[in-house]
Design brief:
- With about 375 residues, the protein is of the alpha/beta class.
- The chain has 14 helices and 10 strands.
- It has helices at about 20-35, 50-65, 80-85, 120-125, 150-165, 180-190, 205-220, 230-235, 245-260, 265-285, 295-305, 315-320, 325-340, 355-375; strands spanning about 40-45, 65-70, 90-95, 100-105, 110-115, 135, 170-180, 200, 345, 350.
- The strands form 3 sheets. The protein has a 5-stranded parallel beta sheet, sandwiched between helices. Strands 3-4-5 form a 3-stranded antiparallel beta sheet, with no helix packed on it. A two-stranded antiparallel ribbon has the order 9-10.
- A hairpin with a 2-residue loop joins strand 3 (about 90-95) and strand 4 (about 100-105).
């Protein structure tokens, strides 16, 4: 068995998230009526289902008449050729002596038009139908990499600003998903204010939706016409509603049920839970890549004895790491932990370990270290 489950993309069985979908659909109608656009941000730790939700919101946008263009990356917002390719807009740069003088467009009827200011904004305008356009940007935290990059930063900032402020002459909405640092990435490019109705901090699925997803997989992929409720409950509990963890246990159930002739016996349930937990632990090790065992233990020591979801101040985290490392290294460890989802910023500015089982994993690592030291 491969312990690490890699699961990204559209959810095969999607449930819940009405608290995000409903405001998004209202935003679609509102901005179309105003003939303007905005930025809609979904941020959350790894494994919270951002990519699946972006796909689901895109489907709702299509149902409501919007055109949807996905698979955008940060460089697309400063590079006209890249954006033209993503939006499927015909584009030919004209050059003279090695310098770009403009851009040549081929209209729908073959008519050539020349825009002497070749920029991404003009490309988006050309691509946007009157009914509206959704631009989907996953991993939006990578926008921060454009800060400090001269012309690239200026062009990207200008593009994002015009989308955000609805100045493209059409209902164009940037639908962005990313880690907890996503808003900071936008701020680094001058987008410093996002409406509350257009910013989402994604957490776990609610218990009903969690069980519905597990149930659907068992019926449609595991061959169980009526999975026992006790089995569903036993798999739902250790996931804490986190979509990636749900898939850890669903994939394990597929394997174990196949080995038991699709009989949900107590033994196959035990094996399923064991394999699901192995996948969870492997996932946490991947998330903590680049953070040494000792550094993990320092972070864990701050949360030892605290209830799951408890928060710690940034200054206390930095101070603890600095007790054994330089200030530069301490900041590097903190930023990596935040970037990789080991830590997550909460609305009050404090930081938590976002997933209960991840917090227990770190504290267990700390306690094992203490136990080994005591035996020496």
């Amino acid at each position: 068995m491969e312990a690490f489950t890699e699961y990204r993309g559209p959810a095969e069985f999607f449930h819940g998230r009405d608290e995000v979908i409903n405001p998004f659909v209202r935003a679609l109608m509102h901005y179309r009526a105003k003939n303007r656009g905005t930025t809609f941000i979904i941020k959350g730790p790894p494994g919270s289902g951002k990519t699946a939700l972006l796909f689901e919101l895109s489907e709702h946008a299509k149902t409501n008449g919007y055109a949807v263009k996905g698979s955008l990356n940060a460089p697309d917002f400063h590079d006209p050729a890249r954006m033209a390719a993503k939006l499927e807009v015909p584009y030919t740069p004209r050059k003279s002596g090695g310098w770009n003088l403009g851009v040549q467009w081929l209209g729908w009827r073959g008519k050539k038009e020349t825009e002497m200011q070749s920029d991404v904004v003009n490309i988006i305008k050309k691509a946007a139908p009157a009914e509206g356009l959704i631009l989907v940007l996953d991993e939006a935290q990578h926008l921060a990499k454009l800060a400090g990059r001269g012309d690239d930063e200026e062009r990207a900032a200008a593009t994002l600003d015009m989308i955000h402020n609805g100045e493209l002459g059409a209902p164009v909405i940037l639908l962005a998903g990313g880690l907890g640092t996503t808003e900071l990435a936008f701020e680094s490019l001058g987008i410093s204010w996002i409406e509350d109705s257009c910013r989402v901090r994604l957490g776990p699925l609610d218990p009903k939706s969690t069980r519905a997803v597990i149930h659907d997989h068992h019926v449609h992929r595991c061959g169980l016409d009526s999975p026992p409720q006790g089995w569903i409950e036993s798999l739902a509990e250790p996931t804490h509603g986190w979509p990636h963890h749900i898939m850890c246990f669903v994939e394990s159930a597929k394997e174990c049920l196949a080995a038991s002739n699709h009989e949900p016996t107590p033994r196959s349930l035990q094996h399923t839970v064991e394999r699901g937990r192995q996948r969870q632990m492997a996932y946490y090790n991947v998330r903590a890549h680049g953070i040494t065992k000792n550094q993990r233990c320092i972070i864990a020591s701050l949360f030892e004895g605290l209830p799951t979801g408890a928060t710690v101040e940034k200054e206390d985290i930095i101070r603890s790491i600095k007790s054994q490392y330089s200030e530069k290294d301490a900041m590097g460890v903190f930023e990596r932990a935040l970037r990789q989802g080991i830590l997550d910023e909460r609305p009050d500015g404090a930081f938590a370990i976002p997933i209960p089982s991840m917090q227990r994993w770190l504290v267990d690592l700390l306690n094992k270290g203490k136990s080994m030291d005591a035996k020496k």
